[in-house]
Amino acid sequence: MNKQLTSFRSKKGNDVVFRYPQKTDFADMYSFACDIGSEDTFVALDAPPTESEERDFFGRMMQDVEQKESVYIMAYVGGTFAGNGRVNRGKGRHRHMGSMGISLRVAFRNEGIGTELMKSLIDEAKALGLRLLTLSCFENNVPALRVYEKLGFQKAGTIPGAIAYKGSYINEVHLFLPLVTE
To answer: Which long-range contacts (CB under 8 A, 24 or more apart) does 126-131 make?
Structure first.
């Protein structure tokens, strides 16, 4: 599998490379997970993982990628690991669906990288033969919701108080994107 998917210049003029994960990416992934966990941003991770937890996650991720159960895309900006995105194929009667998500380091947000990462993941999901993508989002993550809607995602519904976040309970928005039309 070709490791590099694409390269482009961000809205802020930074050189961005998207590529598939490699076994040598563990240190970048662990550092990133620790940063995101410490930031307490709009992700499910509410604390930095231990190295052992991240090693387990990384091993499962690489296995799922090899078995074509998941697609992961790594984003590098000027050679620095900026974030990643993934699509996980559903199981059983949901094998035609994929759940997806992305996260970026705070220094690389609002450059159009997340939008391009979503577009690349949608293309990868189509290549896997998926028919439908789903994702969930904190209701107060307005910039992300705008991107998802701009890319054609539709709101399926909201679960009130589903996310414990900074001392309160935030609604979780569920969205979907049909990849085939009938």
So the answer is: 126/179, 128/68, 128/71, 128/87, 128/89, 128/98, 129/96, 130/87, 130/89, 130/96, 130/97, 130/98, 130/179, 131/96, 131/97, 131/178, 131/179, 131/180
Q: Could you tell me which residues come within 8 angstroms of residue 28 by beta carbon, excluding any fewer than 6 positions away?
A: 74, 81
Neighbours of 87 (CB within 10 A): 23
Question: Which of 3.40.630.30, 3.90.550.10, 3.40.50.1220, 3.30.450.20 would CATH assign to domain 4-133?
Answer: 3.40.630.30
The residue type found at 128 is: L
For 18-70, what is each residue's pLDDT tens digit?
Answer: 999 999 999 998 988 888 777 766 666 667 888 999 899 999 999 999 999 99
DSSP code at position 111:
S
> Cα(33)–Cα(95) distance, rounded to whole angstroms?
28
What's the pTM?
A: 0.90
Instruction: Report residue 149 as tokens.
Output: 């809607």
